[in-house]
Design a protein that fits this description.
The complex is a heterodimer of chains A (about 270) and B (about 260).
Chain A lengths: L1 H4 L6 E11 L16 E12 L4 E5 L6 H9 L6 E6 L2 E2 L7 E4 L11 H8 L6 H14 L15 H13 L5 E5 L7 H17 L3 E5 L3 H7 L2 E5 L6 E6 L11 H13 L7
Parallel strand pairs in A: 3-8, 3-9, 6-7, 7-8
Antiparallel strand pairs in A: 1-2, 1-4, 4-5, 9-10
Helix pairs in contact in A: 3-5
Chain B lengths: L1 H34 L10 H13 L2 H33 L1 H14 L8 H8 L3 H25 L3 H9 L4 H36 L6 H11 L3 H26 L2 H8 L2
Helix pairs in contact in B: 2-10, 3-4, 3-6, 3-8, 3-9, 5-6, 6-8, 8-9, 8-10, 8-11, 9-10
Classes of the chains: A alpha/beta (about 270), B mainly alpha (about 260).
Chain lengths: ~270, ~260
């Protein structure tokens, strides 16, 4: 099935992205002691191509520029060198077709769940259709009956679900998620992971997902890219074809896991 | 039965809490007057003040003064809100405007509105306009700064999400920026309403022949200290009422979310 597409240009092309910035803090950062006004290279010549419909996972040590790279791909940040194209169009600004779920809470706390959903559903012009769609999406993420609640009245997991629903109702071609479940407890995280896989199977979209959890990436990713520490280069770019649900303890995945740990400078996979 | 009685008792004592300090103050005041240490012309007794309050009320003079003062405060306050909030929004969203105007505002802000009295009289003559102008001045700068800092402290994620979903500039201002800054704007409105009420009394002592400020000044000139204190009591009560009203506003869902955010 992939033989047909492999001839064509990939949907998302990340071509030689380099990101540098001038250190503006007068107090040096602890990990690498960058001095004031020094040029810091965060991303160093990153080239990746991502096929349409891929569940793409980006892993790497903290501070390596994963979030910066994702923000550049989504058009929220601009690279120092290189370019990103999605469907052949160069990315220069954010677009309603490329929805970003940020690491921190992005629901508007002064709007109810329903009103937040309306922001995502603004492309549906007919008010009746819009209301029906909102109802459906909220039911899908298990939030039926919470329409008139405010975000602060929901648990952390419910807030994340509402935010994912708000992103999905915009029917994006690309969904960006920057460690979306990092703040959740373990069980909720596993559940959300599964729900994201289901959503990916149900909607025709490409997902770009950041995580620092290597097991999570191996569990859900069709393509896993490992970035090294700053200045970050692509250390590994792996395609996974194992069907879901995957057994993380299978010899193949265990070997990959060891390899990723090795690449990140952790010699024993604990 | 006994437990129920205790519960009612506890509720009653909770209800009384805000009044104890006031009651004790009035009792002490009465005691000082009884000792005769301070002559009645420099400190009227609570009873005399109550009598004065009754006279002012029944003659209708008090009501007219309150209306006159509130009228001026309302005008100055609304004029300030209508200009300061949009200006604060613009300053908060456009860094160039903020950097240009902020020094000027910071320079004008610490000048007491009372220092403007001579100029206000020359510019606006006698009557309501100079008093309204002083109220406007006392509210305008703090309101601008509260609104500006409210906008400047909006979490960048909120703006990014709005850009991501393709909200128009209008929608961005009305649905995101204004509501996000509203809690601080309301705090600004509450603080400045207090300031306005503080300034009106002084303003009415110079330019006009009505209002609570004039009432006090006039009573002093005719040595009616009971009227002076009665005027002070009314000013305090109305200030308290206005603040309670603004506290109500702070509990609206559109405002309280910021305090409930985790």
């Amino acid at each position: 099935m992939e033989a047909v597409n492999s001839e064509e240009v990939a949907m998302i092309q990340i071509e030689g992205i380099t990101k540098q910035y001038r250190e503006r803090r007068t107090i040096p950062r602890t990990p690498d002691h960058t001095k004031f006004n020094e040029t810091v290279t965060v991303l160093d010549d990153i080239t990746i191509s991502i096929e349409k419909g891929t569940f793409f996972c980006l892993v790497g040590p903290s501070g390596c520029g994963k979030s910066t790279l994702l923000r550049i791909i989504a058009g929220f940040d601009s690279p120092t060198r290189g370019r990103v194209t999605i469907d052949g169009m160069e990315i220069t600004s954010p677009s309603p077709e490329h929805i970003f779920v940020f690491q921190e809470d992005g629901l508007y706390p002064w709007l109810t769940v329903h009103e937040n959903m309306e922001i995502g559903a603004k492309r549906i012009e007919d008010p009746v259709n819009r209301a029906t769609a909102i109802e459906e999406y909220l039911e899908m993420v298990g939030l039926a009956g919470f329409e008139s609640h405010y975000p602060h009245q929901l648990s952390g997991g419910m807030r994340r679900r509402a935010e994912v629903a708000r992103a999905l109702i915009a029917s994006p071609k690309v969904l960006f998620m920057d460690e979306p479940f990092g703040a959740l407890d373990f069980a909720t995280r596993l559940q959300m992971r599964e729900e994201m896989l289901n959503a990916h199977a149900m909607f025709p979209m490409t997902i770009l997902f950041i995580t620092h959890d290597i097991d999570e990436a191996l569990q859900i990713g069709d393509q896993v890219v490992v970035l090294g520490s700053r200045p970050s280069k692509v250390k590994m770019d792996i395609k996974l074809h194992q069907p879901h649900p995957r057994d993380i303890a299978s010899p193949e995945l265990a070997e990959l896991r060891r390899e990723i740990y090795y690449q990140l400078g952790l010699h024993t996979a604990l | 039965m006994k437990r129920q009685f205790q519960k009612i008792n506890r509720k009653a004592s909770m209800f009384m809490e805000p009044f104890w300090a006031i009651i004790i103050m009035v009792l002490l005041w009465q005691a000082v007057v009884w000792t005769g240490a301070i002559p009645a012309y420099s400190l009227p007794s609570p009873a005399a003040v109550a009598q004065g309050l009754w006279e002012l009320t029944s003659s209708g003079r008090l009501f007219k003064s309150v209306v006159a003062s509130l009228f001026r405060v309302t005008w100055g306050y609304y004029l300030a809100a209508l200009t300061a909030i949009p200006l604060g929004l613009v300053m908060g969203t456009i860094p160039v405007v903020r950097r240009t105007l902020n020094p000027l505002i910071q320079f004008l802000r610490p000048i007491s509105p009372l220092a403007w009295i001579p100029l206000a009289l020359i510019w606006f003559g006698i009557g309501d306009p100079p008093a309204i102008f002083l109220i406007f001045l006392s509210c305008f700068f703090p309101m601008t700064l509260f609104t500006m800092s409210g906008v400047a402290s909006i979490r960048p994620t909120f703006i990014r999400v709005a850009e991501n979903f393709g909200l128009s500039r209008r929608e961005k201002y009305l649905r995101i920026i204004l509501p996000a800054a509203l809690p601080e704007i309301v705090t600004g409105l509450r603080v400045t309403l207090g300031t306005a009420w503080l300034v009106i009394v002084a303003a009415e002592m110079i330019a006009v022949k009505s209002g609570l400020g004039f009432l006090i000044l006039d009573a002093r000139n005719s040595l009616r200290m009971d009227y002076v204190v009665a005027g002070m009591v009314v000013i305090g009560l109305i200030g308290l009422l206005l603040d309670l009203l603004m506290q109500r506003m702070e509990r609206l869902p559109a405002v309280i979310w910021k305090r409930l955010e985790r």
